[in-house]
Amino acid sequence: MSTDAHNDVRTPWVAPIRHGTMDAPPHLIALADVDPLGGSIDLGRLDMVPVFGRPVGIVTGATMQRVREAIQTLFSA
């Protein structure tokens, strides 16, 4: 979820994707319709990833825009 341009400590972050439909509390961000995975990103389980850990998947730019907006809303409250 983070890159060198946005992360001073250079530690990669990941948030798990929950598959299926559910009522979405504020920490769950629905994936964009164009994202082939389906489900919600669980921002409440955001965690650091070991630099040499196993590879993780990626989501579309539209989904990352939703994540960006959710994080901004969370920290501006």
Key terms:
alpha+beta, 16% strand, globular, 1 helix, two-stranded antiparallel sheet, 3-stranded antiparallel beta sheet, 77 residues
Task: Give your account of this protein's structure.
With 77 residues, the protein is of the alpha+beta class. The protein has one domain. Helix content is 21%, strand content 16%. It has one helix and five strands. The chain has one helix at residues 61-76; strands at 13-14, 17-18, 28-30, 40-42, 47-48. The strands form two sheets. Strands 2-4-3 form a three-stranded antiparallel sheet, with helices on one face. The chain has a two-stranded antiparallel sheet with strand order 1-5. The radius of gyration is 13 Å and the shape is globular. The protein starts with 12 loop residues before the first strand and ends with a helix. The mean pLDDT is 71.
- How many runs of DSSP E, i.e. beta strands? 5
- Low-confidence spans: none
What is the C-alpha radius of gyration, as a whole number of Å? 13 Å
Helix coverage percent:
10-25%
Average pLDDT, rounded to a whole number, is 71
Strands ordered across the widest β-sheet: 2-4-3
